[in-house]
């Protein structure tokens, strides 16, 4: 078969599996297997796949038809202009989390040689993006998952910031030492009771430890707010991503005797997505 025939067959298979945008997904999978740009698929419709390419494309299409996320199949995801390794042990980086990174960079740029800590480092996309944009910054990245830390280590080396980040296995702050100018986190915040209703790609493939925030979704958020003050310098900041409809409950968790102020940053859908709080000096 030639390229149009492969794409037609793959599109039909993905459509039958209720995969969103099946034509686009088929094209993206073929580009990945052939390691060619989109222009090649258009300019060379007569191209016939080799036996190895044929087999690899069949496997990729079958995996996607089971609703395995595209990012896990290709093993990568772009985030904040950088290319990150992603594996099933880590949450797939999402565009809305770039708001967290942008705000953290803005906050830390006002500090000489800033030091920050990320709780729940996952793939490392947040910490590494910050470090890539702030050459004088250093970080500690903590995660309860050792396999996730291994992915973050690969990404830190990939983006040449491994000499400025210490990656440790830790249940929140259990193994974290010292004080920081900023604590940043994209914690699990999906209510446990909502997990079953998630998109199949998320529910069946992404790590639940990075998704579920317990009943109501705010167990980890609450712990971060309560435990962060002892790990922040005077006037330091806590910054977290939160879920839809959680801003009022999160706002109520900040004790005004401990926290000087807090505010919410909205995403492109005008949803309060990131909370920034300042510790009293």
User: Which CATH top level class of the largest domain fits?
Assistant: Alpha Beta
- In the CATH hierarchy, what is the architecture of the largest domain at level 2? 3-Layer(aba) Sandwich
Number of helices: 11
The CATH superfamily of the largest domain is Vaccinia Virus protein VP39
SSE run = HHHHHEEHEHEHEEHHEHEE
Helix content: 25-40%
Kindly report the CATH topology of the largest domain.
Rossmann fold
Note the beta-strand portion. 15-25%
How many discrete domains? 2
Q: Categorize the overall geometry.
A: elongated
Q: Which stretches of 5+ consecutive residues score pLDDT under 50? A: none
Major beta sheet, specifics? 7 strands, mixed
* Cα gyration radius (Å): 21 Å
- Find the count of extended strands (DSSP E, 2+ residues): 9
Which class best fits the helix and strand makeup? alpha/beta
Average predicted confidence as pLDDT? 97
* Biggest sheet: strand arrangement: 5-4-3-6-7-9-8
Distance between the termini: 68 Å
Task: Map the helices and strands.
Elements: H1 3-16, H2 22-34, H3 38-43, H4 51-65, H5 70-74, E1 76-79, E2 82-85, H6 98-108, E3 115-119, H7 125-133, E4 138-143, H8 146-158, E5 165-169, E6 180-185, H9 200-203, H10 219-227, E7 232-241, H11 247-251, E8 259-266, E9 272-279
Parallel strand pairs: 3-4, 3-6, 4-5, 6-7
Antiparallel strand pairs: 1-2, 7-9, 8-9
Helix pairs in contact: 1-2, 1-4, 2-4, 6-7
């Amino acid at each position: 078969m030639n390229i149009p025939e492969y794409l037609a067959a793959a599109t039909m298979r993905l459509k039958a599996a209720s995969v969103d945008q099946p034509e686009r997904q088929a094209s993206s999978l073929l580009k990945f297997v052939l390691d060619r740009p989109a222009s090649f698929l258009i300019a060379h419709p007569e191209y016939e796949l080799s036996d190895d390419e044929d087999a690899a494309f069949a496997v990729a299409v079958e995996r996607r038809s089971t609703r395995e996320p595209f990012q896990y199949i290709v093993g990568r995801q772009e985030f904040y202009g950088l290319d990150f390794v992603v594996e099933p042990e880590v949450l797939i980086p999402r565009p809305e989390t770039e708001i967290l990174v942008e705000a953290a960079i803005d906050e830390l740029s006002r500090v000489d040689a800033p030091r920050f800590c990320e709780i729940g480092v996952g793939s490392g996309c947040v910490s590494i993006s910050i470090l890539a944009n702030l050459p004088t910054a250093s970080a500690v990245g903590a995660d309860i998952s050792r396999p996730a830390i291994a992915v973050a280590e690969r990404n830190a080396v990939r983006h040449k910031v491994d000499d400025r980040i210490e990656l440790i296995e830790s249940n929140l702050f259990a193994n974290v030492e010292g004080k920081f100018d900023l604590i940043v986190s994209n914690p699990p915040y999906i209510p446990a009771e909502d997990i079953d209703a998630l998109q199949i790609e998320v529910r069946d493939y992404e790590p639940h430890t990075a998704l579920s925030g317990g009943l109501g979704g705010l167990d980890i958020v609450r712990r971060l707010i309560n435990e962060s003050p002892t790990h922040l310098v005077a006037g330091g900041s806590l910054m977290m991503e939160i879920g839809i409809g959680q801003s009022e409950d999160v706002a109520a968790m900040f004790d005004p005797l401990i926290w000087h102020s807090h505010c919410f940053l909205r995403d492109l859908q005008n949803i309060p997505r990131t909370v920034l709080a300042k510790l009293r000096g």
